[in-house]
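A further point concerns the way the authors explain their paired sequence and structure data. Showing the layout once, in full, would remove most of the difficulty. For illustration, here is how one protein appears when written out as sequence plus structure tokens:
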Amino acid sequence: MKALVKEKAAPGLSLVEVPEPEAGPGDVLIKVLRTGICGTDLHIRAWDGWAQQAVSAPLVVGHEFSGEVVSVGRDVAGIEVGDLVSGEGHLVCGKCRNCLAGRRHLCRATVGLGVGRDGCFAEYVVLPASNVWVHRNPVDLDIAAIFDPFGNAVHTALSFPLVGEDVLITGAGPIGLMAAAVAKHAGARNVAITDVSEARLDLARKVGADLALDVSSASIADGQRLLGLREGFDVGLEMSGNPAAMRDMLANMTHGGRIAMLGLPSQEFAVDWARVVTSMITIKGIYGREMFETWYAMSVLLEGGLDLAPVITGRYPAAEFEAAFADAASGHGGKVVMDWTA
């Protein structure tokens, strides 16, 4: 089968022929239909410092996909040939304290699909049945392919009650855009989102943000005034991993404000902890999705009319992966999807 592979410890990826993966008794073999490009994939392609520490070549990359079940192992129940599925990309041990308590998203032994084991940028992928999400209701193939990052957005956005709240999102990348759509759909009064890319800020307006603020020319304090806020934002969703964004968010939260932080900084940075203490601000770190409560919430949100179509701005045949990756790395658009049937 054809697969997109990190063949050696150097920048770049190659579309090459590799053996089709074999499914065990508890596994599901899936024909891949669509895949989404993630920031993790960009790191692996660039072979930066993180990738050099996290990845061993050769490796089939990718962890965002939608596909059709073509076979199931003898021990698998509840999944049928022909089902449209997506996959949870965090494979957990099932034996640690958190796994046994049903908190699988907190497993310390998590292995990432397309990072610690062969991934889904291929014609076929194998997953344990426990990591397969069956779409019981109709869903667009492209949207189904981005359930993994959509789950990051949902997990982050729904960490705190949103009804009637004023929400600040720093970073209008694809997950920030999805979080803005979720926050507005979930009943936030005002949703403000910041970035320095006008193209991405325009996408934010299309998904329902009340204020899309270019912080290269205006401050978050200016945004507060534009929205008529008197005491600051109630809920913050930090999606950028940018130290300045986090500091600005803290400076513009109301007393007792709550921040969910998904953006991953590249290095340590200083925080005004005195403000955190005296303003009694709660900061919660987010990594991945709650298995599978977040997935259930995603499906329900889509059934309830949440529209993620504007977030997908690039569609390419898998054979044109170089163009697809260049688009994803540009920093100007939303999600980029590759079609493995073209």
Summary: The domain at 152-285 is CATH 3.40.50.720 (Rossmann fold). The radius of gyration is 20 Å. The chain has a mean pLDDT of 97.
